[in-house]
Amino acid sequence: MDKNITFTINNEEKSLLVKTHWTLLRVIRDELRLTGTKEGCGEGECGSCTVLVNGEAVNSCLMLAVDVDGKSVETIEGLARDGKLHPLQKSFVEKGAIQCGFCTPGMIMASKALLEENPTLSEDELRYRMAGNLCRCTGYTKIVEAIMDVAEHAEGEKCE
Amino acid sequence: MKQFQYHEPETIEEACALLSEMGNRAKILAGGTDLIVQMKKGAITPKHVINIKKITTLDSIEENGEGYRLGALARLAEIADHPGLRERLPMICSSARSIGSCQVRNLATLGGNLCNGAPSADMAPGLLALDASVTISGPSRKRSMPVEEFFLGPGAVNLEEGELLTEIFIPFPPEGTRQAYIKHGPRRAMDIAVVGVAVTLSLEKTSGRCHKVRVALGAVAPTPVRAKKTEELIVGKKINEIPLDLIAETVRREVIPISDVRASESYRLEMVSTLTVRAINMLTNNKQE
Amino acid sequence: MLPNTRKGKNVSRSEQAKGTSERKHEVLGSSLPRIDSWQKVTGEAKFGADIYLPGMLHGKILRSGYPHARILEIDTSRAERHPGVKAVITWRDAPDIKIGMYTDDWRFFAKEKVLYMGDVVAAVAAVDPDIATEAAELIRVEYEELPPIFDPFEAMRPEAVLIHEDVPGNIACRRRIRKGDPDEIFARAEYVFEDSYQTQMVDHCPIEPHVAVAQYDSSGKLVIWSSTQAPFNNRMILSRGLRIPMNRLRIITTNIGGAFGGKQELMAEPSCALLAKKSGCPVKITMDRREEFTGSSVRHPYSLTYKTAVDSNGKILARKIKIVEDLGAYNDLGEGVLRYATLMATGPYSIDHVWVDGIGVYTNKQVGGVMRGVGVPQVCFAGESQLDMIAKEIGIDPYDIRMINALKDGDITANGQECISIGIRETLRRVWEESGYESRVKRKNHGYGLASMMYTCGGAGRHDYSGAVVKINEDATVMVMTGAPDVGQGARTVMAQIAAQELGVKYEDVWVDQPDTDLSPTDLYGANASRMTYIAGNAVKIAASEAKKEILEGASRKWEAAEEDLEIIQGRIYVKGVPEPLGTLRNLVMELHRPQGQTIIGKGSYHTTGVPMDPETGQGHVVDLYLFATQLAEVEVDPETGLVKVLNVWSAHDVGKAINPSNLEGQVEGGIQMGLGFALTEEIVLDQGETLNPSFLDYRMFTSADMPRIKPIIVEVPEPLGPFGARGIGEATTIPTAGAVANAVSDAVGIRIKELPLSPERVLTAIKEKRKG
Lengths: 160, 289, 773
What we know:
The structure holds 3 protein chains of 3 kinds. Chain A is of the alpha+beta class. Chain A contains 5 helices and 5 strands; from the N terminus they run E-E-H-E-E-E-H-H-H-H. In chain A, strands 2-1-5-3-4 form a 5-stranded mixed beta sheet, covered by helices on one side. Chain A has helices at about 25-30, 85-95, 105-115, 125-130, 140-150, and strands at about 1-10, 10-20, 50-55, 55-60, 70-75. The interface between A and C is large, with 56 and 63 residues.
């Protein structure tokens, strides 16, 4: 079945005809060709498909596209502005938190939402809240360091 | 995923009418964290999907003096971090927090967790231990029942054709009630409970006797269950009189766990004993979880 | 488009020693930001699934319905008629040929028999992925079930049905080591221990599933984009299997979302290629997570027996080891894995009498491939567990018993090789130091466990080589062409650093792309056996030095100075000892191009000198260079639930020379995540050949919430054969972990479990049994 949906994605308004059984992930990747968001498992276990919907981190592989009608979606492509990386992106690069890079967009989107909600969370709490983002390359060490570094300097920079 | 007819009712009545019409050809879509996974696997292939999230009255979390009313669409993330719930019903918060990941909790709903009917549903033991009740709306009537009567078997809940779970009511326990939910699994997060134990312990101020206790268990029977014989061993006793060894023995006889890919029957039996005693010890030492 | 700046905190720099004119060009030893970080952090970097070509179809593979069966008939007619389907293929669409890495026991599509439930039977290409899935379900296959075998010991019985009808006893390969006479020692020794161990089937679990896209161009040439970690290896087999000459078959490596050995073999490529041919359209196949668990390669389960004699001082006098490697349905890379396991089974110890017998046995289960550590995590778990147990029995500290036996320069290994410039003792010592081992305080249910390992870097007992080309552009920026794939370990970055170091240019001026079999020189085995830095790195270094020679020849002519008196630092040309530069590399290169018409291209290749193991004795100079590491794990055990909490892991590695310290740390941290899963929570659970947990829900990897603190320790004992003295590290980081954790659990609660994983249930059962007895 087809349905028309209207939503903003990375601050751009889109109107699309989608099939009701398509997931948000499929629309983002196959229809909008925003391929930064990845499919790692399709079951909401690995977090590689994490995007922000109305500012909240969700598994886009578990959402039907029709469920973002009237909402705002943010993907990894929307983070850097005018050639300038978001503080989280910059921190990931500097701390060596990227190896294969496949989990990276999901990690960044999830941690962005976390820090915006709670800029002063502890490392232990961060690790708990990032448990839905799996990584096989890094052991999470430098990822956590990169995010905590941004959290600790939260006062300094803000990139909306 | 196979294609389906998609519906977005805006009222409970509309939803119930659709459910009546479609019968078992239809599935309710709330958070989707269970349904979408099953549909992608091909384990469930509904011809109709009824997305109830447009029914705006269903996602509230409200206190009414006697307890908390939670709409069936209240999301686990909201429940986990709700300051009011955390103050009076912290066990419900910790149960919600123990489920899945942040991303899953931002989508998943209380109603979904219950209606999925999994014996391991993490919201269930806490609700059982707090004497919660559910309200169900149907095409011609509303009915309420204790949560205990809602679960019928693995994947089976007490909903007739055309009915929709709309509300969960959790009464405030007696003042000073201690409560804890222990979810046991091999990792700190992301696991389905191997065993879930919820205990509430209400002590009289003056005598220090336990005047009310609830022990509720998940993942160890065809439905989440109350361990009533175990409760009988605790009620009326002072903290230092609680017969922990007898409890460890008794609680095992109130469950019928299975062996599956997550754990064996014998391990689950062992954990039911160990963790029930552990929960009681935690509460008698006044540590809440 | 973001600017391509790679200046991080540690930029390539030149240092001027004060008071002298001694200059140094230092690119190595810096944690320079990776070459591909920017593209990956913005989501720009394209992986295989991100490729969309005009007219592209989506493919879906149909796998076997039974673990062991004869195929009677395959009826694809309903699938072919399904609207939106453009091609359906089976064995009939492929050349009738069997292929494989070591044994030609495999086909792209099963023809007579299916041998495990992941076996490929057919594939469909359709305009939409949902249609492809639906159509695959419409293919009707008629099977005649055959008795399946799931246990290698069952498979070896005389009455067992043969899985490959031409392989007697279901034994596909054997490896032996014969050094001295252990039985003679056992007869006389004061202390002899014999123990058996069992390890489980686990998966690589790269977060990116396997993916391939295939397209025939208008000339009929086949182009494949793939997540492969071994493009040249794949090309060789695909060329044979499809009967296409290598110059008509191009494999382009995409960004790879993790591999760990699981992307060594051909997976979706043959299906994509044949579907593309039949449909006349490009075809993409992305495997789903379920297929990753059921149809991709796994780590071989091992059954091990260790018999060890020691004297009262703890010196190991003899070790006799039996290895049964559960191959799964095909030999694939099993023979190679057995080789490594056999060579490294003794552990990093000097032992005069060693016998090892390894066999690879077929079963009707997932195919064992190469998975990080290739057989050595298994033998290390067994050997190190036993060593600790022995230490406890005779009253010696686990650290001391290792130091007593650890190999030294000049010692002879099990396969009769002399140790040259090795660092095992250093790794032990550094772990001891950094962890405060000597003054460790043990609480109840709390313990520490050591494990040391030996491994190889760059393969063993096989001929291996890599080629590289270094090309200097007219503006003096540098292109490095190498067949070395970056699977996320940072190979491209390391190659850039090596080239920059050798040439004397800035790291930021060097570019390295992923391999393309048309354009890159051959690199035989790809990102395998921790061989990138050593083999590909050496090739790059040689190519860079050749390019540099050409540059210096030109400089010598231009400035009339002797070549040996010239040096290049940070892109400037100097006479050694003279403070002012003669000129820039850029200007010189421009001149060499025009008007002299001289392109500057350096070519290099490097090959290993290790020889195959002697089939009877395993002796020979098999290993080019050895790798050593030691890990110490600190754990807390909950004695009532059996849950093991890992608090800290110290991990010391002899890397020869740390080219990029941050990269090395990343390898340690990631390898330990995989090792901890192997030790405690990961297992593919099968029931009659069917996988019960083909998803991340019930196949449990460590999450960020489960990880301990990790302390990577870099030891640098220069390796004479390595580029700038460097060795590899990729697999060493995961090899000792299970052994260390098992030993720590033993230290904590006094139990000894000889089977992995150390699940809560196993631990609890062992604790209860100990209480009883």
